[in-house]
Amino acid sequence: MKKIAIVLAFALLLAAPVFAAAQSEVAGSVGFVPSKNIDWYVTSSPGGGSDIFTRTLMDIMVTEKLVNDKNIVIQYKTDGAGEVGRLLVSNMKGGTQADHTLLTFNSGDLMPMAKNTNNRFENFQPIAHLAVDKHLIFINEVSPYKTFEDVIAALKAGANITLAGSKGDDIGCHAALAKELGVSVDQFAYVTHDASSAAITAILGNHYDLLISKPAAASQYVEAGKIKPILALSTSRFPGNLGSAPTLKELGYKNVEVPNWRSVVGPKNMSAEAVAYWSDVFKQVSAQDAWTKGYIEKQKLVPDFMGHAAFKAYGAQFQAEYLASIGKDK
Amino acid sequence: MENFTMLLEGFTVVLTVQNVLVVLLGAVLGLIVGAMPGIGSLAGVALLLPLTYKFNPTTAIIMLGSLYYANMYGGAFSAILLNIPGDSPAVMTALDGYPMATKRNRPGQALFTSNMSSFIGGLIGMIILTFTGPALANLGLKFGPAEMTALLLVAMTSIGWLVGENPTKGVILTLVGILVASMGMDTLTGSPRFDFGNIYLLGGIPFTPFVIGTVGFSQVLKLMQDRNKKVEANLSQKLTIKGSMLTLHDIKRLLPPAIRSGFLGTFVGVLPGAGATTGSFMGYAMQKAFKSEEELGTGAIEGIAACESANNAAAAGSFAPLLALGIPGSGTGAVLLGGLMMWGLNPGPLLFSSQPEFCWGLIASLFLANLITLIIAVGIIPFMIRILTVPVKILVPCITVVCIVGSYSTSNSMYGVLVMFFSGLFGYVLDRNGYSTAPMLLAFVLAPLLESNMRKSFISSHGSLDIFFQKPIAAFLILVLFAIILTPVIKFALKKIRPAQKSS
């Protein structure tokens, strides 16, 4: 009998650190664990960038058993260019459903939302900011320009130059770049495409002068020698095959960047316990190899994890700056 | 010849038991998805995509490719038998398919025509894809905003063929189509248009529910009118494959439009932003310019052949930019592209050289899917035409449910259903008053493409019209446009002058 007690005590002693570790892992989430299936809203179509982001996160959360063995169901809400889905999540009443609702949200969603509707970043609970995408300017094989300095010189000489790109953050980049270079947006014009792939198609066919794109969409074409990066819209050069492009500072201007960040938010009425739980879950996901290697590295993003509080401040500031830039008060 | 050996290697990839089964599964699912109004290839591929993440990429794309492909066959079934297009490319099929099935009492032959033309169009598209793949994609690249604008203007003139007996009514509906299409977010500046402060309207009127409504649900309303009509008994004699066979004369009529549309469709499929729907609309409109034995719109074999062949060819053609350049030619292509990334492939100009097994496997699977789908589709004709013997009172609630499900599934919300109901009522009112909805739908499809391309051209030319005349392709197309528009004017003028000369 005594022997058994000693063995038991010993076993408990051994197990103690395990329990402690387990406890510290869920320390931030006292009071909340998923008790039902999770509804994860995506406001763009299946197969796109946001969908791939969401599915990668979801796969890791399920395989690493971070959601208490509950299922995650992706809900695509694309009505009203995504505004309907965002409004639905932001208006959700507090309770179990709100605690089990997530929304994929990036700056490309925030900008049209703030511009066209009254919905604001403050109407959501920021959960986790996961990664940042930055932009580069490219030329095609037959371009008369060889470097971005050539482009600047041409602009100064009064040439009309057209830049092709996608929506949202790409447009923001163009506006900021034109401002920094001191040229009008009539002379340095921008043509919006539905997706980066459409803009790339147009530049491959030599229908515009320049292309703006995030690295992931363009990288294959750089590899194939079809396009060449000539400017990095970032505070430092990009790695790998994009490294040849200088930043604006190297050319004697101030750096220009309008990052597209990718994040996850919840309904405004999500309980504080649930916010803490989810924030912690995404923190764990962001440390997984499947995330850093399988997503961030492959899609050429910059990892940048922010939890609830940091992301809340960052998002609010981003929104304020954006609203100011388009001349809206709040 | 190198491409041919690559294709044969592709067949060795495809012809494993597992992959053949997957093609079979894709074909059956595609036919079902295609025949259901509203659930088109886009929804079908999007729904199945998550299931394929765990497959190996070749098997996954083979399944989705054959599903996409079979879908083009399936849409015609409900279009011909019920006058309710199963997917948007089949809108044109209904114009001649339904009259042929009901008025001319040849439902089996109508389905047979559609299946044969689909097969021919698809085959032409695939052969072109096999031998010119990357070159074909490069031809697509030549079409920038200026060229697309000119081409779309030419395409817009084809509305003139569709306006029917009363040109005024046709023009009014064309304008309505353009107006409805301009609702929602402006694609170039992102500013809202005609949203009336409604958050749903911010995204515009979705195409699929709009089509299901104006064509499908309005047909349900029409059926409800004569719900007590007895089903004609003479159908039951022909409910076999034998009774559905085409005569030699039919085949002779079918071949020229099917082959012409096969080439046209492949070309349209390669163009940026234009998919199978545009292909079938243009194929049908082109047939109007050629001779048909019976007038188009009254159940002519030529009409069915022209659009069915064009949409399958366009589906095949749209794989060229997708595989050779990583550029999606249509919405469905964009979903497939997302799939490629999820499976760990990097779609782009290097795909053909870095993943030949995958690319040629996919192309080979399209050939296989084309054959398998044809066999299945022809095989089920006798069963499908039995739908015509179903009493209207049973048919109406069933179709209504399918319409609702289809329009709900486009955005998973009741918004689509509302759009479907209202456009259904609208379509019914139009039909009762002798308006044909075809010009409206064509304008609805082409107007947004035309608008965005025209504005892109003007931004890059800084407002100058020169851009349409400096580039050879655009200049040629503009000449064609003038020729089309001016021919009737000159003919008319000549007629006026000649009698005048005679009398003098």
Fold blueprint:
The complex is a heterodimer of chains A (330) and B (504).
Chain A: H1 2-25, E1 38-42, H2 49-63, E2 72-76, H3 83-90, H4 96-99, E3 101-106, H5 107-116, E4 124-133, E5 135-140, H6 148-156, E6 161-165, H7 169-181, E7 188-192, H8 196-204, E8 210-213, H9 215-223, E9 227-233, E10 260-267, H10 272-286, H11 289-297, E11 302-306, H12 308-325
Parallel strand pairs in A: 1-2, 1-3, 6-7, 6-8
Antiparallel strand pairs in A: 3-10, 4-10, 4-11, 5-8, 5-9
Chain B: H1 2-14, H2 17-35, H3 41-48, H4 57-82, H5 91-102, H6 107-141, H7 145-157, H8 159-162, H9 167-181, E1 184-185, E2 192-193, H10 207-225, H11 241-244, H12 248-270, H13 276-289, H14 301-317, H15 319-325, H16 331-342, H17 351-354, H18 356-379, H19 381-384, H20 392-409, H21 414-432, H22 438-460, H23 467-470, H24 472-503
Antiparallel strand pairs in B: 1-2
What does this molecule look like?
The complex is a heterodimer of chains A (330) and B (504). Chain A has 330 residues and is an alpha/beta fold. Chain A folds into two domains: 28-132 and 261-325, Bordetella uptake gene, domain 1 (D-Maltodextrin-Binding Protein, domain 2), CATH 3.40.190; 135-251, D-Maltodextrin-Binding Protein, domain 2, CATH 3.40.190.10. In chain A, 43% of the residues lie in helices and 20% in strands. Chain A contains twelve helices and eleven strands. Chain A has a six-stranded mixed beta sheet. In chain A, helix 2 links the parallel strand 1 and strand 2. In chain A, helix 2 (49-63) packs antiparallel against helix 11. Chain A is globular. Residues 16-29 of chain A have low confidence and may be disordered. Chain B is mostly helical. Chain B folds into two domains: 2-470, no CATH class; 471-504. Chain B is 73% helix and 1% strand. Chain B is built from 24 helices and two strands. Chain B has helices spanning 2-14, 17-35, 41-48, 57-82, 91-102, 107-141, 145-157, 159-162, 167-181, 207-225, 241-244, 248-270, 276-289, 301-317, 319-325, 331-342, 351-354, 356-379, 381-384, 392-409, 414-432, 438-460, 467-470, 472-503, and strands at residues 184-185, 192-193. A two-stranded antiparallel ribbon of chain B has the order 1-2. The longest helix of chain B is centred in the N-terminal third of the chain and has 35 residues, at 107-141. Chain B is globular and about 70 Å long. The model of chain B has no long low-confidence stretch (mean pLDDT 84). Chains A and B meet through helix 2, strand 2, helix 3, helix 5 and strand 7 of A and strand 1, helix 16 and helix 22 of B.
